[in-house]
Design goal:
By secondary structure, the chain is mainly α. It is 73% helix and 0% strand. It has two domains: 69 residues; 70 residues, Winged helix-like DNA-binding domain superfamily/Winged helix DNA-binding domain (Arc Repressor Mutant, subunit A, Orthogonal Bundle), CATH 1.10.10.10.
Length: 161
C-alpha cells in the first residue's frame, strides 16, 4: 500500500496535463479507486493495480468530458442533419457572381452579335460546332474562330480582374 500515494500523485498529474482541475482530478481518481475496489470485491484479479488505475481514470475522464458536452451531440442520422446546413450563397457571393455575369455579358456584347451568338449556342445551348455551322450557314472553322475569340476575350478579362 506504500505506492498508493505515489500512484495518486501520478494520476493527478496525468489528469491535470489533460486539462482537468484539481477537484475534477481528485473526483476521477476517487472513482477509479472505487472501481478497483469493486472489481476486486467481485473476485477480479488485478496484477498491476497502477496500470488498472491509469486506464480507468483515463476512461473516466474521457466519459466525463463527453458527458459535459452531451449537448454537442445529436442522435439523428447524418442524412437528416443536412437540412441544418444553409447551402445558399452569402450576400457577398451573390453580389460577386452578379458582377462577374455583368462583366461577362459586356465582354460578349463588345465582340459582336455573331460571335456572342455562336459562343452562347455552344456553351449555353450545348450545340456542337457542326450543328451551329449548319444553323448559321457558316463553316465549322468559322464557328471555331468565333468561340476562340469569345474565350480569349473572357480569359483576358479574367486575368485583368
Amino acid at each position: 500500500m506504500g505506492r498508493m500515494p505515489q500512484t495518486f500523485h501520478r494520476l493527478r498529474r496525468i489528469l491535470l496535463r489533460r486539462g482537468r482541475s484539481h477537484e475534477e482530478a481528485e473526483d476521477l481518481i476517487q472513482q477509479a479507486f472505487l472501481n478497483l475496489h469493486e472489481y476486486c470485491e467481485r473476485g477480479g484479479e488485478v496484477r498491476q493495480p497502477e496500470g488498472f488505475l491509469i486506464r480507468t481514470v483515463l476512461r473516466l475522464a474521457i466519459n466525463a468530458r463527453r458527458d459535459e458536452h452531451r449537448d454537442l451531440y445529436d442522435d439523428r442520422q447524418v442524412e437528416e442533419l443536412t437540412q441544418l446546413i444553409d447551402t445558399r450563397p452569402t450576400p457577398d457571393e451573390v453580389l460577386a457572381h452578379d458582377e462577374c455575369l455583368e462583366r461577362m455579358w459586356k465582354i460578349l456584347d463588345s465582340l459582336g452579335r455573331r460571335t456572342r451568338n455562336v459562343f452562347l449556342m455552344h456553351r449555353l445551348g450545348g450545340m456542337s460546332y457542326p450543328d451551329i455551322a449548319r444553323q448559321l450557314a457558316i463553316s465549322v472553322s468559322a464557328v471555331e474562330k468565333h468561340v476562340a475569340r469569345a474565350l480569349r476575350a473572357l480569359s483576358e478579362a479574367n486575368d485583368d480582374s
